[in-house]
Amino acid sequence: MRNLFFIAWQDVRYQLRQGSTLLWVFVMPPIFFYFIGTVTGGFSAGVSGGAATPITVIAQDPGFLQQQIDMRLRENDFEPEWVESLPGVDAEEAPRRTLSIDPEMTSQVLADQAVVASFDTRANALSRDFEVIRIQRGLYTALADIAVAGAASSQPLDSAMLDALNAAPRMWQLESSPAGKRIEIPSGFEQAVPGMLVMFTLLVLLTSGGTMLVLERNQGLLRRLASVPISRAEVVAGKWLSRMMLAALQVTAALLLGTFLFSMDWGPNFGAVVVVLVAWGGFCASAGLWLGTVAKTDGQAAGLGVLVANALAALGGCWWPIEVTPAWMQGLQNFLPTGWTMDALHKLISFQAGAASVVPQVVLLAIAGIVVGWLAIRNFEYQ
Fold first, then answer.
1. Which of 159, 238, 295, 326 could staple 64 via S-S, CB 3.0–4.6 A?
2. What structural domains does the chain harbor?
3. pLDDT (tens digit per residue) in 278-291
4. pLDDT at 45
């Protein structure tokens, strides 16, 4: 046992003296947390309590009805910017969402003339239909306000009537609550921090872990270990333990950075989150050791490590919420270790499920780690 820990500690010390290892363990994760978290934050904007959706409202001389429509749009999670005209700009510089309303809107309404509003958006298909529904809801609510305020008085409609209507107490109030736990698509840092944690742990263990073993074999360092009174089992176990220690360092750094830099909430079952990450670290340690036994050169180990880590991260839901991907990709996630890990973390963090809900994923990761570790043991050679 003493030899095992000696090998593991020497390997970790060597890896931590490498600038590339320090870069990918401590520097790159927070950069990707911020970048991916900012990008994926748009998936929930205006849908589930996210940031208000910016929209440019083009209306020439809108009159006092502008205030009422603006209020109703804001109630539907929009952030309107009113302009009288839109100067000619390139397509890339044009507003992402525009709501165009006929000129002199208030005057036309007071004259009982139809007012046409048209909505144009460059949003993706995921949110386009929902934006149209929110626009319609806001405009129809404003129309109902106009009808009610006008019917309540024989005088022509004015802004004071609408203010009085807005201030009047509501006779009917609807209270709603979900029948069960509300399932929302993880987004922003809630998606990015666990996703990048999973990806970087695999990336570092495959590249640094695999490359180091290849170098030791090609430089004859493993042959020296074969000449000392240390069993083959102790050598392999020490190599695996060193990679597990590196995985633990990577996970701990990501947990601390995510918590203190990005205010990440790990959910009510943090202990279960740790168990999932330990199982994931064990799999990554076995995978890194196995890659080091099959790769012939350090360049091959590094190249394969980057390729495999990025492919598994993309297909397993580390880069984006798996719910926004095609059905075939959502099905494929169920067969990938990254998919099992992300599914378990989202259950615990985003959906606040109980610890028992992630037992299948932990078992699958443990089995996968054992199988890949067994392959590494079979292929391990001193030269």
1. 159
2. 2-42+186-379 (no CATH), 45-167 (3.40.1710)
3. 999 999 999 988 98
4. 44
